[in-house]
Design a protein that fits this description.
Two copies of one chain form a homodimer.
Chain A (H helix, E strand, L loop, with lengths): L23 H11 L2 H9 L3 H9 L3 H10 L2 H9 L3 H9 L3 H8 L4 H10 L2 H9 L3 H11 L6 H4 L6 E3 L4 H10 L1 H4 L6 E5 L5 E6 L17 E2 L4 E2 L4 H10 L4 E5 L5 E6 H19 L13 H28 L1 H6 L2 H30 L7 H31 L2 H31 L4 H27 L1 H4 L2
Parallel strand pairs in A: 1-2, 5-6
Antiparallel strand pairs in A: 2-3, 3-4, 6-7
């Protein structure tokens, strides 16, 4: 997991170079068996983040639990942070409620919300109940938000003062609590009124030049920008694109200050979204898969996706069955059917990718299907002609029959047009209907283009049958 | 473009709500024709980042140039920042060298390097030459780095002092240059010795508690972590995963301080990498495509990829040609060939996606092909059996011939094993050989699995020919 909250360069052990260990999980197992915290902490701190994830993922569950429970809570948090979310969740789920609670409590609130969200409802609830009462209430509040809105991404660990506080008192609080504030964003303090409403932001450096007897309100930026707790991720991404802030304060309906969403938390969610688009486009749907997961879980997840596809495929192939007589007479057609179907699929996927890219960049609106269609048809005409011609030539050279070339060439040309038209517009349509374009575009596209492709080849062939049979 | 450098909440106009304008490019054209900076600045500042990109991308080139050259340089930089890199580069390329230089000079050094890297070599050189001499030298230095190493991602705009400077002098410098430093990361100052070598990092808040007559060296963190200018992106990602710094100082071979790489710059590059994997997996290879690009450019880019595929496809289809006689006798087989080929492709792509994911998480090493293969074969056995059985049943039900079911079922089962084996291991192999797994895995996989699939179906059919013909 990523940690959006800031930190200082005072972590010392990190100064030692990372150990390059070909099989770090073996050493880790040994240390876990010894069950002694100190050497475990030291060994882990000297591994790179990805080696930590690698080593831990290669341990059996018992050893994983031992490692996590042997480490001091803050080191355990540190370790979890370097795992993929799904690994971290699995690991915490394997712990007892008390063990889990002890660790989760050490996390900054945005990571808490993230992790708890990945656990099963019941267990998450039990873990929260194990917190001190007031803490539990606060966590429940954030936990109620989904992790793609501001409320689910914010950190509560911020410097907040009443706007009437004196400069001197702020400076003293800072020096007295230097340790506690170490991991905070110490670039700004957030100032509230008696009703906890956000009234100003205080750039810490202003403290350097201020008279110590003044109230901080005198040196604060009044009416700072803030966002509602319900602001969705894409608006957050847009916000941080438009403003170079490291964080933005988040308020509820009454204007009460809830916390701060950091740019890093938003960047992190954006990366996850892009990664999941890639996985989905390749047919990994039910959440990410790691090869350390149990076999049946991995097989089932993949199969659920494959079985939809095979059914769609069989449907498309049905078209071929309809034209068996034609095929029987002109067997050469069978050679070109897979080519037509694969190539149309490729052209369509390109159009899908460009549409999803333009949607994510905001360069096209889901309503502009006509515009996209026109742009795609022009490309389709050019590429369809080129591909059709190429395949036609191959057919003529190989089979010696002009008309075979004509049939497959025209079919591929026409089907390329169909493929890019569907591929370009379907993502916009799905987006408008609230579906995930990354998941649905692929199979939908392939099936339709396959069907059309087979229809075109075999239909055309049936029409010109006499010309095709030698 | 993203701006990794920090900033303050003191930007005022941003306080006004963003205008929701269905066709912002029309208003933008009007304002461009008026050629008056003030209203242009105001209109643009009130658009969201994505609406700015949308509006600008819909203008004709002339108007785009007018907008960019009418805006004050710092606003032009602001605007460019919200465009995708490719849009920004196109736009700057359309300007005169002087116009471009005036704008590029206003950018923080990491964005300068990014943009210049996207321009054509010659023009980039001319723009740099138009800078003041010392500036030009510094820019050339960074420009020499590729943008996936620390040297290409760092900002030179940092607070740096000699370690012998007095606390009071630092505080004065800060207050005197408050304006200039506004966009800097003011969380830390970086301290160097007489040879410009990095000797310490100064958390600004330490200034709050320090005696003003002390040298800053007394309150600095000595021997801070730093990275070489040559550190590659994946190590940077790993570094920021392991440390919660907002930035890390970058030094050259002599230990001289070059600048700071900010976490945001690294997060941004990571997102780009994930996005480009998705685009590549869908067959958008030659850099990202926007539908605002000229038709032939878009067609050519896509075609270069398609033509490779069609050739590979034709090669695979050749296998079918070899077995025409069998196919002629058992025409029903033609119905199942596309199913076998599509389904194997799907299974293979899933394995590719999981391998690339595990590679990027560091959960598998490129050398662990045997491990991955075993993990994939097990899944392949389960899913291959399920899919094979399903298709077999369909064949029997539809054709009434047991043996047809046997042939297609066994073929799909075996080919699924082949597909996941290739799909799982090829990305590791490509990574080891230094190729880009996202680009090469797809077509390679499809061709080989198609060939094998056709061989299996038609080969088996040929063996059991008597049983298959009615």
């Amino acid at each position: 997991m990523d940690n959006p909250s800031n930190s200082t360069t005072s972590s010392s052990t990190a100064l030692e170079p990372a150990i390059v260990d070909e099989r770090p999980w073996e050493k880790l197992t040994e240390l876990a068996d010894l069950g002694n915290a100190a050497p475990l902490v030291e060994f882990i701190e000297n591994l790179t983040a990805s080696d930590q994830a690698l080593a831990l993922s290669r341990l059996d569950e018992e050893h994983r639990k031992t490692v996590l429970t042997t480490l001091p809570a803050e080191d355990a948090v540190e370790l979890l942070r370097h795992l993929s979310e799904i690994q971290a969740a699995d690991l915490v789920e394997s712990l007892s409620i008390d063990q889990a609670a002890a660790i989760v409590q050490e996390m900054p609130s945005d990571e808490q919300a993230d992790l708890l969200g990945d656990l099963d409802e019941v267990q998450a609830g039990e873990i929260i109940d194990a917190f001190p009462r007031d803490e539990a209430i606060a966590v429940r509040e954030l936990f109620a938000y989904s992790d793609d809105v501001a409320g689910g991404l914010l950190v509560r660990e911020i410097l907040r003062f009443d706007h009437s506080t004196k400069v001197a008192d702020v400076i003293n609080t800072l020096s007295e609590n230097a340790e506690e504030f170490r991991d905070y964003d110490v670039q700004y303090a957030y100032l509230t009124d008696a009703e906890q409403r956000l009234v100003g932001v205080l750039p810490m450096r202003n403290l350097l030049f201020a008279r110590r007897t003044d109230p901080v309100a005198d040196i604060m930026i009044a009416d700072p920008l803030s966002l509602r707790d319900t602001t969705p991720l894409d608006e957050l991404i847009d916000f941080f694109d438009s403003h170079h802030f490291l964080g933005v304060p988040v308020v509820d309906a009454e204007g009460k200050l809830l916390g701060v969403v950091h740019r890093n938390a938003v960047d992190y969610e954006a990366t996850r979204a892009a990664e999941s688009d890639f996985l989905k486009s390749q047919g990994i749907i039910g959440g990410e898969e790691l090869r350390t997961m149990p076999l049946m879980q991995r097989a089932k997840r993949r199969l659920s996706w494959l079985s939809i596809n095979v059914v769609l495929n069989i449907g498309a192939a049905g078209v071929i069955a309809l034209y068996q007589d034609t095929l029987e007479k002109v067997i050469a057609l069978a050679v070109f059917l897979p080519i037509i179907s694969d190539m149309s699929g490729c052209s369509g996927n390109q159009a899908v990718a460009v549409s999803m890219r333009e949607l994510s960049l905001g360069l096209v609106r889901p309503t502009e299907m006509a515009r996209v269609w026109l742009k795609e048809v022009t490309v389709g005409l050019v590429n369809g002609a080129a591909l059709g011609l190429l395949v036609a030539i191959v057919a003529v050279v190989w089979d010696g029959n002009m008309y075979l070339g004509l049939v497959v060439g025209v079919a591929l040309f026409a089907n390329t047009l169909i493929a890019v038209s569907i591929g370009g517009t379907v993502p916009l349509l799905l987006k408008r209907l609230g579906f995930d374009p990354a998941v649905a575009s692929g199979p939908l596209l392939t099936t339709v283009t396959d069907m059309c492709g087979f229809f075109l080849v075999l239909g055309l062939a049936t029409v010109m049958l006499e010309r095709l049979v030698h």
